[in-house]
Amino acid sequence: MPDRDRNFFLYVNMDKCEIEISKPPEKYSSLGGRALISSFILDNVDPICSPLGRFNKLIIAPGLLSHSSIPCTGRLSIGAKSPLTGTIKESNVGGTASKDICRLGYRAIVIEGRPESDKLYVLVITPDNVKLVEKPELKGKGNYETVKILKDEFGKRVSVLSIGPAGEMGMAAAGIAVTNIEGMPSRFAGRGGLGAVMGSKGIKAIVIDPKNLQLPKPVNSEKYKELLKDYVSRFKENPVTSTVLPTYGTANIVSITQELGAIPTRNFSEGRFEAADLINGYALKRLTDERGGKTGHPCYPGCIIKCSNIYNDPNGGYLTSGLEYETIVLLGSNCGIGDLDTIAKLDRLCDDYGIDTIETGAAVGVAMEAGVLNFGDGEGTIDLVHQIGRGTTLGRILGQGAGVTGKVFNVYRTPVVKNQSLAAYDPRALKGGGVTYATTPMGADHTNGNGLGGNSDPLRPEGQIEYSRYFQIAAAYIDSLGLCWFTRGPLLGNLELLAEISNSYLGLNLTKDSFEMLGKQVISTEKEFNQRAGFNSSHDRLPEFFKLEPLKPHNVVFDVPDEELDNVHNW
Amino acid sequence: MPDRDRNFFLYVNMDKCEIEISKPPEKYSSLGGRALISSFILDNVDPICSPLGRFNKLIIAPGLLSHSSIPCTGRLSIGAKSPLTGTIKESNVGGTASKDICRLGYRAIVIEGRPESDKLYVLVITPDNVKLVEKPELKGKGNYETVKILKDEFGKRVSVLSIGPAGEMGMAAAGIAVTNIEGMPSRFAGRGGLGAVMGSKGIKAIVIDPKNLQLPKPVNSEKYKELLKDYVSRFKENPVTSTVLPTYGTANIVSITQELGAIPTRNFSEGRFEAADLINGYALKRLTDERGGKTGHPCYPGCIIKCSNIYNDPNGGYLTSGLEYETIVLLGSNCGIGDLDTIAKLDRLCDDYGIDTIETGAAVGVAMEAGVLNFGDGEGTIDLVHQIGRGTTLGRILGQGAGVTGKVFNVYRTPVVKNQSLAAYDPRALKGGGVTYATTPMGADHTNGNGLGGNSDPLRPEGQIEYSRYFQIAAAYIDSLGLCWFTRGPLLGNLELLAEISNSYLGLNLTKDSFEMLGKQVISTEKEFNQRAGFNSSHDRLPEFFKLEPLKPHNVVFDVPDEELDNVHNW
């Protein structure tokens, strides 16, 4: 068992169902989250291994600052070679697990190998014991039921990481659910098919029970307390983190992208959605308030922004939580669906079956374009998501994501980069985000810089490279620290404060310049893995149709030159 | 219209339905077949274009020697950026078209652009006219009916290239059918999804009618006549080309690979098939003779080997023709099917729907492994092929080939390289062929060196690189000359004769060293395209399972080191 110096790796070898706890190589001990994952994967995973074979490794790593009580540092990174993209992958998630893993003293959990049999295991981690428990009765169960069964057995207090049937079936859209503060499996490491990697290793769930272990105290409590006031005040002074996000959640972005003409609509064929008013932040807030749901809900303990929510059905019963902008757009406007209740049902189903709402919405949009069902067909979409969960033939196609769906149904307008679907920002009208989609080592991923908030005109190609570079670097260190992406407003202009508060708590030696260095290092590491895995600059491109088909209402195409895309990571 | 100096390109621009006939750039005028295609595609096709979009080009080019009457020079090359592999692709086919295109004086037909509408066209080429004719009534028709309708309209004499519904539906397993000497659409440019490229351009068929135009006469008739005797005698002296192939066809290989333990059986899980005797060359010969079919049938005019066949049903009626070894194995032993009549029916259906028998058999094998149907279920396999032709949801998966099928159904043992299925030689027991599968620029392709016939022990890794290199180079020039792959026995040891006879007929300046140079140049050109399209050495690998799972009966894995694979094309 780890002692309390908080620097252990927990290795779970599924070839033999063996568990080992050991000190990691020195180089990993100052890393966390995405940085730790990138470095570990580059060092330890064969870049051309089969993503669902025994040579891939699933790494679960809290951010570097998750090992503290600094507010907004509760994000968890999960990574592997992705079965969706073939690239290195880090997917980032809230919920209670990150801090609980830290309480237990683990820097990372590494799951490797692959069992010969198709037995299904739950990994149970407590301060006294780490064990693999066979749980055949969980086979095929949704995340909600799985978590209920496990909480009944292991106690309400535990954090659970789990996969639904999609992960068991090896679907490339399968994510890993993490329980939120209420114990609901509604926070998701959704992107890149990491649920399928977990499933390939025969792990249905990970139960994390720190019992009464606590996070360490600050190294310099006085200093920390002093800095904390300043830190918190930055969040309160920022209107986005103090007002907009806690009031409306990320759904507030609907009105922004609608205004910009950048909201993906009917499979990325238009940039404005006629029913945007029915699915935006105001609509969400109104329905939530009416039905006794909640906005201003934290997605992990210690969050002081609280942009998450609990969404109730018309009768006031719990329907889903963590209903985010990306879900609302990809399963909403992108499918021509302008009804929040339908979208919320879809979100619940995706959470339960264990699939990424972004990839699923994009896949359904492509299927709609192929004529599998009509745009706007909410009930048909609900049926399709059930089909994914049941693993019907059609469901298995959709469960492989938008790229495979586009291939199977011969859809030219398939919005993927490196086979991962774009998120809820059309790159023709938010060109900085387009640069990010094209070039980030993760496949199209809005969390690396979505194109909102830069100084340049989002409709024009000028300045977008610089914009994307800045945010890709920021995302890389934010995801390495365990910070949430929305801390960028309060913190990116106050990196000295961030360095000082981190140092005061954890005894680090960060300076304001450390972060950019770290971010660059992470991206370089990831690109090195990708290069070995068979990627080069030709993969750093948007699908052809974005360059050819003008997007209404601004009639713009994506016109950032290829040569500029190739310069994003030249620093 | 071209004059008779036989050096024109026919450009068909489907953006505007425009036709242009012009002299090609000088650099192409000494090239033919695969060499011409490789060079043209590298120069003219955006390597990251969408394969089924308007920027891809389909090139149809007779071999360099097809413009002569030298025996065994009637093969036709068809190429594009492949929708299956994403690489450059040349697929090679017999039938009557190659010589007819030469009679008309065309070095190549280039089809580019993509119509805005979904209209369906037939391209009709005669000495007096080239035109695009709208033929909506052919939509969804199989190759057999398509060819019948076109021959009724344009005459029995014409050659037809056509696609079935699979090509219209953009399936990556779709090939292009070429009529054989009897006018049956049973010769196939099967590999790489070129039928889908033709379909994406709105071209259902190409009717080639040279009327009374003839091939040119030899430049030096006396010399040619003299050399011709020697040339023909080489074929007669070689037991494979003089006896084995005309008697048993390529089906003779069944007994060889069975003996070697290298015959793909039940989705590449075993190397011997218990029912091999029922599907080998002797069985084929016996059934063919009994039913009034034919072996010793030429696949194109001017062939003096005649390894093709006509296969009749039990009542003596025509069932299919050109029933080849690869088809017999991939749709036979690889699916656990040990019945030639079932395999022949499957071959006919694949020809009619317009799909590659190799890719289809591999995809069905993967589906069987996934439990979609049982190994050995012949009727079930027939149903699946009908589903491909009808474009059912399951059919569309299979129609995308083994790679997509393996992804959708989460099958680890998916036998593809660069997403193209391996052919009928297990690379663990024929390691030279394994090297070729891994490294050829075309994705797994047996026609570039299948591992049979080398001097080294096929079960051991030593010497396989040299073997594969030799045959990859040979394949590249053979496919550029319009020669058939089986001419390698008589000709590879007599390259001086090949040079002289070519010079005497066509006034070329070849020497015995020209061929190897040409072959290397072709492969280098193709690799350059692939590199620009996003491929590097990490893609030159067999699937992981070939290195991990020993193949019965010899219990061998594929163990040629990666570093050696990376040296195959270093010359």
TrEMBL record, chains A, B:
Gene3D superfamilies per record: Aldehyde Ferredoxin Oxidoreductase Protein, subunit A, domain 2 (1.10.569.10), Aldehyde Ferredoxin Oxidoreductase Protein, subunit A, domain 3 (1.10.599.10), Aldehyde ferredoxin oxidoreductase, N-terminal domain (3.60.9.10)
* Class of this enzyme: oxidoreductase
Q: Which UniProt keywords apply?
A: 4Fe-4S, Iron, Iron-sulfur, Metal-binding, Oxidoreductase
Tell me the cofactors it needs: tungstopterin; [4Fe-4S] cluster
Q: Which residues form the Aldehyde ferredoxin oxidoreductase N-terminal domain?
A: 6-212
Q: What is its EC number?
A: 1.-.-.-
User: Record's Pfam families?
Assistant: AFOR_C, AFOR_N
MF terms per GO, please?
Answer: 4 iron, 4 sulfur cluster binding; electron transfer activity; metal ion binding; oxidoreductase activity, acting on the aldehyde or oxo group of donors, iron-sulfur protein as acceptor
InterPro entries recorded: Ald_Fedxn_OxRdtase_dom2, Ald_Fedxn_OxRdtase_dom3, Ald_Fedxn_OxRdtase_N, Ald_Fedxn_OxRdtase_N_sf, OxRdtase_Ald_Fedxn_C, Tungsten_al_ferr_oxy-like_C, W-dependent_AOR
Alphabetical list of PANTHER family matching this protein: ALDEHYDE FERREDOXIN OXIDOREDUCTASE, TUNGSTEN-CONTAINING ALDEHYDE FERREDOXIN OXIDOREDUCTASE
Q: Which family does it belong to?
A: Belongs to the AOR/FOR family.
Output this protein's name. Answer: Putative oxidoreductase YdhV
Organism (species): Koleobacter methoxysyntrophicus
Q: According to the entry, what is the taxonomic lineage of the organism?
A: Bacteria, Bacillati, Bacillota, Clostridia, Koleobacterales
